[in-house]
Amino acid sequence: SAAARRAPDQPPTGDEDGPDLFQDEWFRDPHPTYARLRAECPVRQVRSPGGHEAWIVLGYAEAREALADGRISKDVRAAGHIFARSGRRRDLAPAVSQTMLATDPPDHTRLRGLARAAFTPAAVHRLRPRIRAIAEGLAESMAAEAGPVDLVERFALPLPVTVICELLAVPEADRAALGAWSSRLFLAGQPEVIDEASHQLADYLSELVERRRRQPGDDLLSELIAARDAGDRLSEGELVSLAALLLIAGHETTTNLLGTAVLSLLTHPEQLAWLRADLARLPAAVEELLRHDGPVNVATFRFTTEPVRLAGVDLPADAVVMVSLGAADRDPSRFPEPDRLDLRRRSAGHLAFGHGIHYCLGAPLARAEAEIGLGVLLRRFPGLRLAGPPEEVGWRRSRLMRGPESLFVLTRA
Ligand code: HEM
């Protein structure tokens, strides 16, 4: 509870707790570390991955406050000098640096406005039959395997990737390369690899835009090109960046949600039985699975543009702020017995999709994919079970995303 927390004007320094973040044990299960750090102080200094001054926000109320504070910026251009100071200047291609996720208003408002129409609940509703057909096709191909099959490779990854690639009309032959660049962008701690992948992705998407411009279709990319060419409301770099953001979001997030969700359900048989008894419970179940172990677990990075007093703690200007959505969603002062997966609980208000002006634009799509995907799996495979002990599941070693690298299951009873 808040009373047990350390006096907020005396935040602990990074030295005490630096070793606990981003270690083997943390990748496997970060929640015990979060719980300990949050109980001491919900906003605290840590050593950031790049070695510069950073603050991590672990409490629910504190995370909401940070995400809504206009003085805490997402603008990577404004943050360039912070990286320069730490000697880790990065040279990212426009593909990842001119997105709505990396800008503040007014640019953010304009960029988000242009993409919004594609992701409204009504627009996503029209995609549902196609999402279901893709999911059923993937489940069918898994059903052909008598032995263990990797649910991540065969289902959790190809489902959202196919959906987003179809939306953007990426030819089937190019999808494997896109997947490889996208996952390299998420490799922990190798700036050269990240830079190279970002440039390859940018080059590919510039070419794709050129092709669509010559030969428009009725896909989202053609619509965005029309919007750009009509009013010059999107620069060429912004257009390519938007396509990259949507592709990356489409590759790395829902995949992890589906993988973690299936693992959680298969290791909580009584919860799974309750869900199977009435699959109309799926939408609520997805919210609890997002709260309990969402994909954007540790950090959504931000930067203070001026000194900010956050939940009673003074952050200096130019500080890197990591808001841990995964920690916030297990704050016992907001969700009682937070470590317990309880599909019946009221999980609304969780922060798995963020909060404030950067709240996930793709949330309606992600929810539809998770709901439909899990529904197809549970219907098609009444005896679905893990092929090995859950402790042996390998987790992604990413500071941005949490999810199983692979998940071997048996589809036959
Ligand atoms: C932003 C989570 C799926 C598109 C965000 C943010 C979070 C998030 C936490 C805000 C980050 C921040 O404030 O720093 C998730 C989760 C997903 C998911 C957990 C799946 C379970 C998707 C999908 C798409 C998408 C499928 C689209 C294809 C976006 C976009 C933004 C965003 C465009 C930037 C919004 C802005 O800056 O205004 N997402 N996302 N997301 N997401 Fe998602």
UniProtKB/TrEMBL annotation:
CDD domains: CYP107-like. It comes from the Bacteria. Keywords: Heme, Iron, Metal-binding, Monooxygenase, Oxidoreductase. The keyword Transport does not apply. It holds the Pfam family p450. Residues 14-23 have a biased composition (Acidic residues). Belongs to the cytochrome P450 family. This is Cytochrome P450.
